[in-house]
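Loading example: each entry is read as two labelled lines plus one structure line.
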Amino acid sequence: MATFIDRQIDDWEKRGVIDAQTALKLREDVGAGLSRANGTSAAKSARRFSFFQVVAFFAAISLAAAVLIFIAANWEYVPRLVRAIGVMVIMAVGYVGGALVNRRYGVRRGLVEEACYLVGGAAFVGGVALIGQMYHISGDAREAALLYAAGLGLSGFAMRSRALVAVAAGWMLYWHLDGPDADNLLSLQFVIFAAAVVVGIAFATIMKAVWLRRFLYIVGIVGLLPFVGQFLDDVLEFLVDVYESIPETIRVLGWLALLALMSLAMLFARLKPASAGGAPLVSGRGAGATFALGLIALAFLHGELQSDGGLILASSLAVVFVLVALFAHGRDRRVIRYISYVIFVGEIFVVYGSTVYSMLGTSGFFLALGLVLAVIAFAVYRLERLWKARKAREAGDA
Amino acid sequence: MHKKPFVILAAILSVACLSAVLFWMIADRATILRDGREVVLKTRPIDPRDLLRGRYVRLDYGISRVPPMLFAPGAIDYFDSGTTIFVRLEEGDDGFWEATAAAVETIPDDSPADAVWIRGETQFRMSSTDNPANVKYGIERFYAPETAAPEIERRMRSGDVTEIVVAIAEDGRAQIKALRQAGETIFTERLY
């Protein structure tokens, strides 16, 4: 755009519409305006870095899945090679698009770049599934997982994409845990898994990607779990036995009571912060523990109430609890706020999944899911701005 | 260091490699369909549906259970799950192909050149000769277009016999070729 305006000014100067001095002034003004505009857009993008972007990714991925499944399900008269070429085009758009974003903006649009790579990677995974479907390959989910891990991991290394490497690590973990030798450290399977994780950690270290390195540590540790699992298994089994020996009504009532208690504690902390004094769970400082206990109660309630009506009840309670948490601590506790969002989206997903799914076809489901997530992303984005505005106003008042 | 060096080249190479994988999969399957030996198997449908891949019908074959006595050179009394086995198929009097011999890991050297061997994997660990081995051949799912799946499934359930035409490659890998019911073709695979 700058070049267009520059050329216009040159043209005006040449044709004598403006004199040389005015042309110079105009050029300077255009330059200053541009750098000003760049400054604000960079600041804006930094401000917008939030949960909103994450949910927007989910929406993007769901939409991509919807497109793929739509092609798979309805266009059976499209020749298979054409379908595969379609998948290839999505892959190319994702990968090359991400690379172009990197060329153009560098790290400033890192998230957009990673999102592009994820779309490309999703197209590859979808493509393999699509071919499996086209040729009725009942196949082996585990073998496919290794193919996904290799495809996404190697292309992730090539494009230095942390997101792709993280997803590949997830597939690798699935491949390992699902395998016959998951609890044998001397098996070829474990050696391959460990080597892949080590290569990933080396990549994360070179890229200085701290979160990816931590994620890979966790993947490695989880991969070791089957080995230590036998012991943990026994302990867990004992605990489950003890738990199951309690009558179901008492279990449900117990969790309901805990949930109610924690909600009240949070409301109390919000409304009467002074009188709470030092009581650990009721003070603002105990917010994390209160919230976590409430979540545990919710998780167990979900486990106990499996029927359709029960699910709706548990989900409703979860939404109410999350709203209480947002009301009480949403402003001051970023972690509580984000977890609340995630739970809200998760509950929507679960209820939606079990009720609406049966009414829509698979592709329709993903399409609708993408739209719903987009709406939620928008809502969360507005909410985040609201919090920020309130905080700023209060800072101004103080 | 804001920009990654060679990132566009890496992207193009990645797309090329991943696309090559997809096209190789298609070419491989098309080769089995085109060149594989054709056999007809008796089947029973089990139950449908797979979230990511649309609708499918799960199939169970007569050859899905291989009696231990068929194994050469002698009855096998132990398998790990996931053991590769080969099952020899021969056409019966009714036109359906049945298992007549089985071998672990490789096709026996003394097998006649025109014998048809299908490659499968054992499903469970097995440690006695009392029960047949459960074997999967990679042809246990039939994906149908979402709109046509219920109709095909209904027809499969109502008919007491459904025939699946399978193409088997030299190395024993199998690929569903067509769906028939009482000699009438319901669905045929195209190569591409």
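The mean pLDDT of chain B is 79.
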